[in-house]
Design a protein that fits this description.
The chain is mainly alpha-helical. The protein contains four helices and no strands.
């Protein structure tokens, strides 16, 4: 008769152990799933932040380079206009990159629209420092200085083109991630 009770007791005990093991496995699996979800969310959040930062850099760098190119074009256009004026008045044909009107020196008065372009570029350099770091800000400052020198006739347009290309390449690499 004792043997008759053994089989049902073993079945009940096995079922209880099996149920406890199943519950424990479910709890552990759910906890691991939650940890995985948190980690995936963290990775996605980091990736989204990196994308936002790169997008902000692209917009900022494009704006800065556009202003630099506009300033270069403005100075070049003004010089060509002055060269045409000199030719009309009857002077010898000047070299278009080294036009100097009488009385004009390195402290030449710059047109207001050029000063506005340069002022906006100067303001963007601080934003470049924040988003791109000190090395990128230094490169932007170098381009700004070459443009300023070009506007004051202390640098040639070819110097601006070289600086613009170098900074553009560096900014492209930085904003590409």
């Amino acid at each position: 008769m004792a043997w008759e009770w053994l089989a049902p007791a073993g079945t009940v005990a096995g079922a209880t152990v099996g149920a406890l093991a199943g519950v424990t496995a479910s709890v552990l699996t759910a906890a691991a799933g939650r940890r995985t979800q948190v980690e995936v969310a963290r990775v996605q959040s980091d990736a989204a932040m990196v994308k936002v930062l790169l997008d902000e850099k692209r917009v900022l760098y494009a704006r800065f380079l556009n202003l630099a190119d506009n300033a270069r074009n403005k100075v070049s256009f003004d010089r060509k206009q002055k060269a045409a004026l000199i030719q009309l008045v009857g002077h010898d044909e000047p070299d278009d990159d080294e036009i100097q009107l009488e009385g004009e020196a390195a402290d030449v008065e710059l047109p207001p629209d050029l000063l506005e372009l340069l002022a906006e570029m100067s303001g963007l350099r601080m934003q470049i420092m924040i988003l791109g770091g000190p090395e990128m800000a230094r490169k932007a400052g170098d381009l700004y200085a070459v443009l300023w020198d070009y506007a004051r006739r202390e640098a040639k347009e070819s110097h601006v083109v070289v600086a613009l290309s170098a900074v553009g390449n560096a900014m492209h690499l930085d904003a590409s991630g």
